[in-house]
Amino acid sequence: MLLESPKSTTQLVALTGLSLGAVAGQLKVLLAAGLILRRRTGRTVLYTRVAAGDVLVSATTEGPRAPRV
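User: That's the sequence. What structure does it adopt?
Assistant: C-alpha cells below.
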C-alpha cells in the first residue's frame, strides 16, 4: 500500500518499522508477482506499484462490494 509513489528500501523500513530483511523479502515477492517495478536512480533503487498492484490495493481498501443486479 505504501508504494503509491516510488520509495527506497530504506524509506520502507522507516515507514513500516520492519527489518531490512523483512522488507526486502516482501519486495522480492511483489516483484515476482508483477505487482511492483524496480528502478535504479544513481545508487538508490526505487520501487513503485504497477496497475495490477493498484487494483489489488483498491480492492482491499474499499472492502467487498454488493453484487450487481
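Residues 20-32 form the longest helix (13 residues).
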